[in-house]
Design a protein that fits this description.
This protein is of the alpha/beta class. The chain contains 13 helices and 16 strands.
């Protein structure tokens, strides 16, 4: 019997895979996927904050903390801070034209118009420092919840600490599956998981196979860290489920020399496509350069924050031409969605630079947290957590190319998804799913 693998796609679309060539079962899988989509659409159409807010409490200000790597040359932490601050600005100012929850009116109406304040702390990308900063924000600064915008390793350390302190932590950045497998009650993630991002990558591969191209043999190149390890596991599991063969899987040391030896192994295995997993832009670029330097251009699909960093394209150079990446947010799609376009324009005006995935993720996490605070009608930790579990944000009321925000029992947003973009002429363009594409796929060694 065929087993369907369904991935929620952006703006209500689904990717459907069937693991055996069985037309009757395949049709049933599609029908079940349609039913899933209809149910999710109905749920996501509920009230933005999941119901009427509690009676207003007399509170002047509610503080939330942001933990991110803010120093150094990396831009992701700085962008995340800007995204969180912009979300707070929209809550505190009367900007009804934006069309987001809490943008109309000033402050949090469920708390008597209380001001939302974001207090940032620099983690330095270090778990111990991040835990110390979290403790300081909670104990000395009086924050009522935290937004995490760091790596999976740092975030894991922080949420274990906040779990003991019964402090809500919202993650808009990571994708590592193990974080929602820790069994924590106070951790929520708005961003898509590795499995959801991997499903988007395999949807692209499947589409190319349906065009008659031989795309069955895959290579995986991953940084040897915890984040990449969870991404690799998700890729392997999905590859096995939908009938792809992983002919070689290699690791390289993050921040080390270019993985030339690993690239030779990849080329020797003659894959049809290469999946690269890296969390840092310099690692992502190094892996791409090494693979493409060893022969004719291969189709490469990048997964991980390293490919979404603004500096990736320049670091990859010509080796990055026609590379694909899976992303949780797309600047190109944002232009086509009124709410996202309004927020991206505000970000550009305020900070003088385009909005990035890191900024969009922190913005979404902060605004989702604000909606839960407002619905809780106070700052009691248990009420905030209950309100977060009841949060329902339809896709039209977010800036992300998802079906919305709705948390499952494990704290994971069940409506998040990935989009595939391709780099051409120093610009990433949406190429999949086709109904959202702005450009045709340019498949190295084949046709679009």
């Amino acid at each position: 019997m065929a087993t369907p693998v369904v991935d929620r796609g952006p703006f209500g679309k689904d990717y459907v895979f069937v693991t055996a060539d069985d037309p009757p079962n395949g049709a049933a899988a599609v029908l079940r996927a349609v039913a899933v989509a209809a149910t999710a659409a109905l749920l996501s159409g509920c009230m933005a904050a999941g119901g009427a807010p509690a009676p207003a409490a007399s509170v002047d200000e509610v503080k939330v903390g942001l933990l991110a790597p803010l120093a150094g040359t990396a831009s992701a932490g700085r962008d995340a801070e800007r995204g969180a601050q912009l979300a707070a600005q929209l809550v505190n100012e009367d900007v009804p034209s934006v069309g987001l929850p809490l943008a109309a009116g000033r402050g949090l109406p469920g708390l008597g118009g209380a001001k939302l304040t974001v207090q940032s702390a620099d983690t330095g990308g270090d778990a111990d420092k991040a835990m110390a900063q979290a403790t300081k924000l909670i104990g000395d600064n009086g924050v009522r919840a935290l937004v995490a915008a760091d790596t999976a390793t740092v975030t894991a350390a922080v949420i274990r600490r906040t779990e003991r302190q019964r402090m809500l932590a919202v993650d808009g950045t990571t994708s590592a599956g193990f974080l929602t497998e820790l069994g924590l009650d106070w951790y929520f993630r708005a961003a898509p998981t590795d499995k959801e991002l991997a499903a988007a990558a395999f949807a692209l591969l499947r589409a190319q196979s349906l065009k008659g191209m031989a795309v069955r043999r895959l290579a995986i190149v991953a940084a040897s860290d915890q984040q990449a390890a969870t991404g690799t596991r998700a890729l392997r599991e999905l590859a096995d489920g939908v009938g792809y063969q992983v002919v070689v899987s290699v690791e390289f040391v993050p921040g080390g020399k270019e993985p030339t030896a690993q690239a030779k192994q990849v080329r020797a295995a003659t894959p049809d496509a290469v999946l690269v997993v890296a969390d840092a832009p310099e690692d992502a670029a190094a892996a791409v350069r090494a693979v493409q330097a060893k022969g004719a251009p291969l189709p490469i699909i990048g997964l991980g924050r390293g490919f979404s960093d603004a500096g990736f394209a320049a670091a990859a150079g010509t080796a990055g031409n026609r590379l694909f990446r899976v992303t949780a947010w797309s600047a190109e799609l944002a232009v086509r969605q009124p709410v996202a376009r309004s927020v991206a324009d505000l970000y550009q005006q305020r900070y003088g630079s385009p909005m990035t995935e890191a900024a969009a993720g922190a913005f979404t996490a902060t605004l989702t947290l604000a909606a839960a605070l407002d619905r809780a009608g106070g700052t009691d930790a248990d009420k905030i957590r209950t309100a977060m579990l009841g949060t329902r944000l339809p896709g039209s009321r977010t800036i992300m190319p998802w079906d919305g925000v709705q948390f499952g029992p494990d704290g994971q947003n069940a409506l998040a998804a990935g989009t595939v973009e391709q780099l051409a002429e120093d610009k990433f363009r949406v190429v999949f799913p086709r109904e959202l594409s702005a450009a045709q796929v340019e498949w190295p060694g084949g046709t679009s």
